[in-house]
Records
---
Amino acid sequence: MDILIYGTINSIMLALMALGFALVYGTSRIPNFAHGAIYVLCGFVTWAFVRGLNLNYFIGIALALALTGLLGALMYRFVLIRVRGMNISEIIASYAIGLAILEGLRWGGFRGSTYTLPVFVEGSIIIGDIPVDYQRILVVVIGVLLVAFLWLFTHYTRIGLALRGMAQDERAALMLGIDSDTMALVAMAMGSMLAGLAAILILPLGNIVVEKGYDVLIQAIAVCIVGGLGSWMGAVLAAFLIGFAQILTTVYLGSHFQMVVALLAIIITLILKPSGLFGQQKELEERV
Amino acid sequence: MGWQELSYLTLPRLVLIMGMLALPLVMPGMYWPRVITIVCIYALLALSFDFLAHFVGLVSLGGAFFIGVGGYLSAIFNTSFGIPPLISIPMATVAGAIICTVLLLPCLPLRGVYFAIVTLMYPLALARVIEATDILGGTDGIMGIDSFPNAWIEQYFVIILVLLFLFGIRRLVNTDVGLVIRAVKDNDQAVRASGMNVNFYKAGAVFIASAMGCMGGACLVHIYMWGGISLFALDFSILPIAATVIGGSGTLVGPVLGCLILVPISELLRDFGTLRIVFYALLLVGFVVFRSEGLMAYGERKYHQVERWVKV
């Protein structure tokens, strides 16, 4: 029972972490290796607003999300736009930005257990006979809502449709008057905000630590690869697969093996089905 | 050929070789010779990154993986079996290269981003496994490893290794095998159509590159007389990449030059702690975006402008 409950919660968390990365890579083919850094940075910015400046929690969150989105947009506009399409340079540039952010935070003394965010709602509820605190339930609810919202956004709004158009066929989209750079800018901003949102939801459950940045990046990538890029269903399903696998290893082997599970998931997927669970033929050609 | 033409062609190579060989003689004190050996180890890693990324088309973000495997193996050979450093290093190189190649074998068909991701995860995952299972000394690491017989052997050993690998790989990429390897990067479908096994050549290239990395790692544990989880540290992955980008990607000499510039700077900035990594990362972004050809390509162009006075 507790495996079922905590597995679900862990899976939704993974899905939240991965959504931003999947959105950016799925639409604009930019592997945003600064994803984890943005996640951690948003946590610290929110902390600064809420604990440092004593703003209202929700105003602080809104400001932090806006700043994170802006950061993503700026990263695209001033750095990534110049190396677009060059795989090696894209990876190196975005990874270096992420590294600069994370190690800069570490140098700035942002470590230790003092940096925590308050939970939204105190207290816990008993499901079956397992206590689950409200924050975790909130994570599940918001996660599900967010996936639903993104599905609606990409299917029924102009920007969402344009993003999907870019993902499917960039040249055809260009011919229909969809500006590739503007869309990539929007995707980067949205992807960063999703990373930030994930941070704000998940970080109150523990400390904000710099090392989280690397873990989040790796888990997001694992989910995206296993699920097959460009497929929401695949990403969500992969999140559940990896999420439950992680909880099971934590219960039976120890929590150190969580990352090994992510790595093994990637390697096994790539050997057995290189396009991911729900990937289409198009991605198969690109990968292998 | 007159002496002018001859010197025009050989001067840059001679300056590099003589300069590298003379470095230990001109460096004073106890501290800077150590820096030279570290420069050479990073240079080996940077060469391996440059070879894989710009001649084979596999971007490896896991330099630390090679260093770690080579380092741990050499440490085990030395402490458990009592093999002296000058023999355990080549053994660790070969064994480490085999292990790395076998572990990377499933990922070889991957392209671009995907290979980069998997190689980024290997060192992190191995470090976690060692931490979790407490094998190989766990978090304390392996202590009591023999050092080189003396400082001169230590320095010349790594310097000569760097020069050998540098000129060796320059030769290799121009041989027939090298041609196939470069073709794998440019158009693997064409290689496949010619009836050659792409993965076989990729595996061979990974073997060479990981041998360089493992050799660096093996030297490193004998220099520090200690091997531990920090062999899988991020520095070993990021600094060689930065050196390659700054020195000039795809030139093979560039990465060595980049290490000669970056590592001493990073030693001078040691007091700033992790701010050093921020510094390389920003430098890296700057070079990738604004000067993607690197210093070496620029220098080569300028040097060739001298040609018109020499009339080759």
---
Amino acid sequence: MMREPVPLTMVPPDIDIVLVAINAGRGLRRRLNDMGLNEGVRFRVVQSQMAGPCIVAVDSMRFMLGHGMARKILVREA
Amino acid sequence: MKKLTIALAGNPNCGKSTVFNALTGARQHVGNYPGVTVEKKEGTLKYKGYEINVVDLPGTYSLTAYSIDELVARDYVLDEKPDVIIDIVDASNLERNLYLTTQFIELGVPLVIALNMSDLAKKQGLKIDDKRLSELLGRYFIPTVANKKEGIDELLDTAVKVAEEKNTLRKTTISYGKEVNEELGKIEEIIKGDGDLPLKYSSRWLAVKLLEEDKEVIKDIMPSSSSSSILGQAEKSRHHLNKIFGDDAEAIIADRRYGFISGACSEAVKRTYEIRHTISDRIDQILINRILGLPIFLVLMYFVFKWTFVLSEPLMGYIEAVQGWLGGAAGGMLPGGSAIQGLVVDGIIGGVGSVLIFVPIIFLLFLAIAILEDSGYMARAAFIMDKIMHKIGLHGRSFIPMLIGFGCNVPAVMATRTIDDRKDRITTILVNPLMSCGARMPVYALLIGAFFPAAMAGRVLFSLYILGMVLAVIMAKIFRRFLLRGPASPFVMELPPYRIPTIRGVIIHMWQRGALYLKKAGTIIFAGCVLIWFLSSFPWEPQYSRDYDGMIAQVEQKLASMKDVELPEQGEEEEADYLAGLTPHQKIKMELQSGIENIENKMGMEKLEKSYAGRIGHAIAPVFAPCGFNDWRTSVGLIGGFIAKEIAIMQFIIIAAAVTGSVILLVRQFMKGYRGEGGCDSCSGNTQCSSNCRGKIR
């Protein structure tokens, strides 16, 4: 259902997804890369809130992304 | 004994501080890195004939110098050149953690890797072959379980060996693919031609950083002679790579680095099974539930404060009692009325007491915060508060410093270092003092006691705290609107798994923050108390306008003639009833007695007025006139408040001792003067006023 890239905010929890692109400035992009959220990484949403932050799982790590941040991350179903 | 310096590095939440505690135990010292508000934790240990200094670097994901923490860690490694770096990696998240490790390898520093929490990794179905990892990455990997102290000795052995031999298992070069490697080679060649640069940096690392366009590194190499040709080549290489790959060199490098790591991991790590929903996830379903999250959080905060205040109250009572007893004992041993007695009793014992009185409240609050932090809940609190904090232009992360601000603003401002964005950080620091810290409690208590009936005290106190928070929100909005414009930065933060905090860890964390308060705030408050005592007691024997001693002697003479008149004990009855029951003789005796007090108070008052503090008070009183208290005595008290809020109270107590005997009456009197109700001149709010103005004050 999600062959096309969609913002992370629109992804329901517990579906395996792949990071396609980060539409952010280089500083933020570098930050995310350092934490392990780089293009091509497989991860999933654990919990998300309307207009609030969401939690994603990369391996056994959990990251919280602010809503604004999550909107800039494009993903597709793995 | 030979000396060694070991630096501990690692991602946040990799168990770094557990390793640090396991290595150094209680021999720790917390300071600051010069110029920045980043905690510098150091500890020492003796091991097999070595005296080892362990430095705990701030937790970082990378060495890209994105935040102050990362910059500090990197500068330490580059400038201080520790003998060996122990990179602590969370074995259950190996790939992400090795990202930092690869950068250390590139930096070419002596390195040992601690595969920490290896028991947890096993439980999660990961089988890590540490020997194979050591071969692949060319550095020693030592499995450890720091909270059970497993593997710590082997880690130390290896670290000492690496530090002594200054060699590594094998030279490892991380390959970034043919094109990138070629460009890196070109930059490296120019760097190697430079006289100084290769001495300080590994040329490979420098080349990678330049391709990544690391601003700090660019700044660092600016002074060198070949900087322009190096930067020119880097620029060209970036451009070239961008054309080939259609992407930033930086992104390509990050991608290749992860590629290298996952290559190594696929050989050395076997996943036997996968747990998709950990216990932490299940706890999170409740604790950060979109409906339950906030109420649970508020209830938790309520208990934190309840427990802090309820438990600290009796402790504060003990401290006060001990202080009073000490003051009495010391006063008795020293010559009465002398300056030395005043210094010891009012200055030193009073000063130490006013620092110690906050110890219970602050340590208990820090204990509660340490438990919340070590258990992993604090990060969730940021998650819960993020939406609300965003509305006021702050950050989910601003919340933790604000919370600590209720204990003491000093460590609270220090805690803002975890906020990456400069504007967010500064706004948080600026509004932090509006959070009512523990030291302000006595000020509030005094004002509430003076102006509100006891039944309302709790509500008034609560509303003062709320008022502070509301003001903080308004000020944050204003700062964000006019001074520090720009959208609130989007944020990303790791949620550590829930852990049961260890008693040892919690105590150490409480102690570190509390000690910081004692050191920073304590010394200033103490010095302030002594200074204020000095200012308000000297000159010791001023020139009085009237002969008070003579006046007292006269009254005493009259009293002596009435020796045989006995005053009945004053019971529970009203003042007026008590007076009505006295014989005329008894009334005269009472008036004489209060007359002496009256004269002594006037003398004390004049002494204070002529003291240095009084003179300063007079000079600055007009400044406070718009606030409604154009009185030199309030000004004297408020001067002390500049040093620490509670010194204002100390000062009022000292003034009260000279004037009325009761601080509450004193404060009322100040305010009354401004309300124009008028206390009578003869009594200055004296409890025994003959013209009966006390009734009005009440």
